[in-house]
Amino acid sequence: MQMYKAQSLKKYFFILVFLSSCAPSFNWREFKFGDDELTFLIPCKPEQASKEVMIEDQKELLVMVACNVGAVNFTISRLQNPKGVDVEQMIELWQKASLFALTGSDKMADTIPSKIQFKISKNEVWGQEMNSNKSTKAYWRWFKQGTWIYQLGIYEPKDSNKVDLNKDLKNMFFDSIQ
Question: 170 or 158: whose pLDDT is higher?
C-alpha cells in the first residue's frame, strides 16, 4: 500500500512538472533602445530587427523588438519622425500600414483609433490606441516622445486559449513606460 501511494505521488509530481512546463510564463524585464531615454517592460526576452523604410522621399530606420509568450506576440517599435512630416500624419500612416499587414486590407472602417492620455515618467502624454478583432486580435498604442514615434503592439490568435491575456497584463505592458 505504501509503495502504491509513493508511485501515485511520483506520477502526480511528474504530471504537475509537465503541465507547468507547457504553460506560458511571463518573465517581465526592462528594455531600452540603446540611445533611448524611455524604458519599457516586456514579458520575455526580446529579439531585435531593423529595416529601412521610405517615408515620402526620406529613408528612416524602423527598429522593432519582439518576443512571444505562448501564442501571444509583444512588440515595441520606434521610428524617427521624418523632417517636415506632421506627427499625426505619420502615426496615421503607421496605423494604416499595421492594419494592412494584419488584414491585407487598407480599409479602416471597423477600427477607429482612439485618442488617449497616459503617463510616461509622471508626464501626461497624448497617444492613439487601436484594436483589431480579425483572425489575430491586435492591440496597438502609438505615441510621440521627442523626435521618435513609438508603436507598442500585442498580437494574439483569436482562437488562442493558451494564454489568458487579461486586462491587467495588457495594462502592465502598455502602461509601464518610464
Answer: 170
In a domain, 140, yes or no: yes
Q: In the chain, what are the helix, strand and coil shares in percent, each to the nearest 5?
A: 25, 40, 35
pLDDT for 21 = 39
Q: How many domains does the chain have?
A: 1
| Residue matched to cell numbers 524604458 | 39
> How far from 51 is each of 33, 54, 78, 101, 114, CA to CA, in Å?
15, 10, 11, 15, 28
Mean pLDDT of 37-42: 93
Q: Domain range spanning residue 169?
A: 24-174
- Asked if residue 13 belongs to a domain, the reply is no
Name which of 144, 136, 116 is nearest 128 in CA terms. 116
H or E stretch including 103? helix 87-103
Alpha-carbon gap, residue 60 to 47, rounded angstroms? 20
Per-residue pLDDT, 101: 83
**Residue among 43, 40, 42, 41 at smallest CA distance from 24:** 43
pLDDT value of position 106: 64
What pLDDT digit, counting tens, does each position of 131-164 carry? 777 678 888 898 999 889 999 999 888 776 655 6
Residue 14 lies in a domain: no
Look up residue 133 and give its three cell numbers: 478583432
